[in-house]
Design a protein that fits this description.
The complex is a heterohexamer, with 3 copies of chain A (81 residues) and 3 copies of chain B (445 residues). With 81 residues, chain A is mostly helical. Chain A is 74% helix and 0% strand. Chain A folds into 2 domains: 1-49; 51-81. Chain B has 23 helices and no strands. Chain B has helices spanning 2-38, 49-58, 61-66, 88-91, 93-110, 116-129, 142-151, 155-167, 171-175, 180-185, 188-199, 204-211, 218-228, 233-245, 247-257, 261-264, 276-293, 298-313, 317-340, 345-348, 351-381, 400-412, 419-443. In chain B, 62% of the residues are buried. Classes of the chains: A mainly alpha (81), B mainly alpha (445). The complex binds sodium ion (3 copies).
């Protein structure tokens, strides 16, 4: 029954932990690249998928944005006058 | 003026009388109180005004703090099993020190603007938890109710993570995926400080809980602390949010020390446009990967991915808005107060808290340094130039760390906007920390 | 038309048949039902249509109300231990009376605009609680779930108080601090009615719970009732909110009776500007004082101070907004429904409720009178003139009472705006009630 | 590039070593783990890196899926009593199939826009529930916490119903009340499919739970499933929302098959203006009627009426707004995730689910047909013309079904707007389903 | 102890269930008509009851609606120019 | 064992209760005055402390207020034309 050197244990945790973190992220990076190329191939930018359903709750925001845009335009207009 | 003096004199007479009678009656009164508790609603015994005032004096906070041997119990959301009779220090000076610490946190949150959204509720919770006799952190007190509702079962940190997910834009990471590795290197802060914590004498499990502070992610820290070392939850949460708040102070010197002026002036190219479908699939990809590699991290990554997927799907905007606003706000209020319950003197004023603070600082510095060094190495091997400063953003602390990177970069070379480039490692750091947390959980399962 | 008659005839045939067979089969059916409950999912026994209709008739509300000896149980969020077989009155006429009372509350809330935000949900909860057989106030019913979630543990009243704190501006009180004493005098309503309640035969503890109605603060009343006399929670809450709603009716005659025309026409000076830091420190000062003098009041004052501090800090506006809007709204819905569960006939239609209503009215009048008289005295001794009307605002009932003061003042002297001056005693009344509540809690601890 | 290869080689070495040592060490490791669980925090035993990696491999999702005999337990919000050791299918292929189904639901929700507000959170909950080892659907997992908080006690479906009530305008029904009968006829979908389900071999209670899908009301379905057949909750909820989403696909062919071109072109008159008081009293009238006729339906109708009454009262708009927005959104998120927990392979991939899907489809079609035929009959006997198409809206599925009616009507005769006329049967269908649900509950009580 | 034919039972449930549903809705229809005629009689359209209390929380929405209306008017105006 | 006169007890509660309420409020009034004078002394009005952090969530409201202000200005302007 030798005594455990906990610092050595912690260092082992570090090797395992950093290893898994990098493994995870490296695989993730490859998947991102793969996905990007697949999407580029099958869904080129010109035909973005848009939801077919009207979204409840969006109307209000849409409205606000429109309002803001109108106002911006109007105030722009007033300034230029 | 005269009215005031009139009432004051009455009151002071009462209080004085009570104080005098106190010495002789105390034992008896105490005894009676106990009897009354035994049988609810027993016939009320008449008391003289002086006895009433004396009883009242017993229930004042002044008396509770001055009389350190009144048998007051500590409070714990888990109830009596985890409570004990307060020591003299816990009952008096300890409370005063904690209230001082709380005021310091108020100052940092309000005057300095350090992460006020969580530091302020945590500090206020700490203030409430240190009130004598009120037992607000007990199972029937407000803080205890909140704690049992969403912290003991880790529900609130996950809801926060869901909301953060709904607020996060992975576009910059998708545009330049290899910067994700910087978010990996910065996790050295976690594992380096794990070694440090063990060296300081913490056991492996406690050290693991503490080291997650280096991940610079509040909800992750709380989640892990709750699983591995619930007694240190308060100190760990306070350390995590404090250091996240101190990012603009801690990081720049380290960033400057490890890079040359030329490196800091490197300009990075324009990011490519990211397809909507890439953003839509990304949270699913991350989650599937977590499922395959380490399911232990899936509560965190699952909640985060759900929030992000809800946003990117574009069809449930009203739910995504709720996650980002009313829900996350409500949970933030509760999470802060609940975590604050762990700032009671008897829980916080232990030697471990000092250790946690020190290790947290080291972890933060180590993570920053590792991120910057990794970025330097990558810059050497990469075709496109990489400004090593963005490595510092890998610690996460979204979006503060990325802003600091951008600020330092702009100081070195006016007009050099690194913000979007720093956001990649920044959000990767969130994932990296969750993965690191999952590894530690899997070890101690 | 014909279709309708066709279906009606079928249905009426069914119902008639069932009614006939009822007399003979009732005992047997009853017996069978019990057996079925004993062993879940026993082999289903075929029933004739007439038997089915008869069973169905047993589960109608008409039958439950007409048949007063069907062994129906009352409901309580605490479960079976607090439930009993309904008496004939509770099961039939009692329910009908309560539904009448509920409709009266609807009328007051909607047509008269009396505190609809709480009276309407409370009344609707009362309606649901009096539905036969549905057991909505039981531990598994909607109202019972809500009750156990946030009323039995006093969580909801505290959240309301937090939201009210975030909505309150202490500026007027800080500008003219001595008006706080008016908020103290008005608490005579509480202690005067305590004496009255004891005279009516309530024991001291119940009398204390009732007397808090005089504090004119809904959450405080619910908080105290829950601790000292949970069985009377419904009546106390309804009385508290009803009288708060009746402020514009109850107060003006008392105000006019106790003051001369000259006094009512007194003009008060312009208030000084209050520094932002004064507002920021105030909630902390109040809380520290409560901690020192009576920790029993700190759940209430702590929640209130947190809300106010969150607002005045200016750095967590998104949390403060949530406290003032979505969170307080959600909790108000739940609090109302949960309190309404105590309007079940078996709980509300007891003689005590009548006593509570009478004492509540006395308490309100006494508090108003004490506030006005105190203001008269202060006006005598003060250098700056004090309009005695503002003393009436000391009962709290924020902000209604202050508005009533301003209205009465403007009637006596057009252009005399007392609103800001009345807000001082008004918010002080909130603190005063919480302090008074703390004293009563400390006595019965 | 080179860095990546460097790390990959290290990792792959680790993984390979662990895989080799796996065969020999597996039993021992397993044994140790159990021992560790017995006594918390026993002295940590040193492990070699290879042992660590091997332990880690045990906790990966890949291993959990590949190793079908690792003794993994299923998860259930009710805890151990309802959990069992996973079979080989449940632990591997079953999960993969479920994840495929989840992706199909994602596709339907996002690309096709089928009821995304609930299908997307349900599907994501299903994804989380099928993660190996994470036990997110267990009593301490996020989904289990949600389930126990609001689904096991039926709280969330009732809150949804309250919000829907606050969103519903009964004006069209009040203007033309006899169209309510169409909402009755469409409930034939429920009872017809009850017969069908029994014919397929379900017992009467399960068949009743399933048949409510024909009511085309999500919260009602969840409420009833939870009471009568909680094991089939996931499949029933998914079927209910899927078919509601498929309304524009399922209904039009049936509508066209059962009507002549002339009938579909019928124009209906302008609706009379409805008095504000009619709208105000209506929810109370419906609730009183439910109380008298079938109290079993009052949780549903009570919650619905409360929401509608809150809106129509006009005096508590801030509460009504909260019911319609932040509260219903929060509850929708939770309800979806909680229901999703029942999509775990061990619960969903049973033969019953297939039966449920088939019966649900039949129920929907039968309800639509019954509504249309009833409208044809009413048109024969009514003085004012009734377009039979509006009968299809009686299934509820508010407001989708009414929109579909309007669309089909406009196709047959451009300019013929049936929307308002279809809203009457549409909202009556909600009440009709709740009544039908109450009848079934009363039978099995 | 003859065996129960469950399909027949289910059919009985159907008769009971549809009967109750129709009974409920028919009574409801009559009540709606009764209520409409009573309200028409005692509260003719000209005096609608309005809440006497100011509503907290409405101000903001009111404001937004007003703003939207103004903008609509302005943009209408701009178009017509 | 004499019987307790509960009304007398309630009167005692009143003395204690009103006493504590007034004690509390009187001390509070003094503290408010003290605080006001201290703040006046050390933080004279000209340098109010302002939070240094940008506030999340405020932007939107700020925006709305700005929008409302612009609209008000514009509509004012239109009227005056
Ligand atoms: Na991190
Ligand atoms: Na008060
Ligand atoms: Na329906």
């Amino acid at each position: 029954m030798t005594e455990v050197n906990y610092i050595v244990e912690a260092l082992k945790f570090m090797v395992l932990g950093m290893g898994v973190v990098f493994l995870f992220l490296i695989v993730l990076v490859q998947l991102i690249k793969l996905q990007a190329s697949l999407i580029q191939k099958y869904f080129p930018e010109k035909t973005p998928i848009t939801p077919t359903m009207p979204k409840i709750g969006d109307d209000i925001e849409e409205e606000q944005r429109r309002v803001a845009a109108i106002i911006a335009a109007i105030s722009e207009y007033s300034k230029n006058k | 003026m005269k009215i005031k003096q009139f009432f004051l004199s009455i009151l002071f007479t009462l209080v004085t009388m009570s104080s005098i009678s106190l010495a002789t009656e105390e034992t008896k009164v105490h005894h009676e109180t106990q009897q009354e508790q035994n049988s609810q609603k027993e016939p009320y015994k008449s008391k003289t005004l002086s006895q009433l005032a004396s009883s009242f004096w017993e229930t004042t906070g002044i008396n509770a703090i001055l009389d350190t041997h009144d048998g007051e119990m500590t409070s714990d959301p888990a109830g009596e099993a985890k409570e004990h009779v307060m020591g003299a220090f816990e009952s008096s000076l300890g409370r005063i020190i904690m209230i001082g610490i709380v005021f310091l946190l108020f100052y940092l949150a309000i005057a300095k603007g350090f992460e006020p959204l969580l530091l302020l509720p945590i500090a206020f919770g700490g203030l409430l938890a240190n009130i004598p006799l009120a037992h607000m952190a007990g199972p029937e007190g407000m803080l205890g109710v909140i704690y049992n509702m969403g912290i003991a079962n880790e529900f609130f940190p996950l809801l926060i993570f869901m909301g953060v997910g709904a607020m996060t834009d992975f576009g910059p990471l998708l545009a330049n995926p290899k910067t994700a590795l910087l978010g990996g290197a910065a996790q050295f802060g976690i594992f380096g400080s794990l070694v440090g914590a063990v060296a300081l004498g913490f056991d492996l499990q406690d050290a693991s809980a503490i080291s997650i502070i280096g991940g610079a992610d509040g909800p992750t820290s709380i989640f892990i602390a709750n699983r591995l070392a619930p007694d240190m939850l308060g100190a760990i949460a306070v350390a995590a949010y404090s250091y996240m708040a101190l990012v603009p102070v801690i990081q720049p010197p380290i960033m400057r020390a490890l890079t040359t002026k030329e490196e800091r002036q490197i300009k990075m190219g324009v990011q490519r446009k990211v397809h909507r479908l890439e953003k839509l699939f990304f949270p699913i990809v991350v989650l599937m990967l977590s499922i395959l590699i380490l399911p232990e991290s899936t509560p965190l990554i699952g909640a985060f991915s759900f929030g992000n997927f809800a946003k990117e799907s574009g069809v449930i905007d009203r739910l995504s808005d709720t996650m980002q606003n009313s829900l996350i706000n409500i949970v933030t209020i509760f999470l802060g107060l609940g975590v604050g319950s762990k700032l009671a003197a008897d829980k916080f004023l232990v030697l471990e808290s000092l250790g946690i603070m020190i290790i947290g600082l080291i972890a933060f510095g180590a993570g920053t340094a590792a991120g910057v060094l990794m970025a330097k190495i990558m810059n050497k091997f990469s075709k496109e130039p990489i400004n090593p400063l963005i490595g510092a953003a890998g610690v996460s602390a979204v979006p503060m760390a990325a802003r600091v990177v951008s600020k330092v970069g702009a100081e070195e070379r006016p007009g050099n906007v690194l913000l979007m480039h720093a956001m990649g490692p920044n959000v990767a750091g969130v994932i990296g920390s969750a993965v690191a947390a999952g590894v530690l959980l899997s070890i101690f399962k």
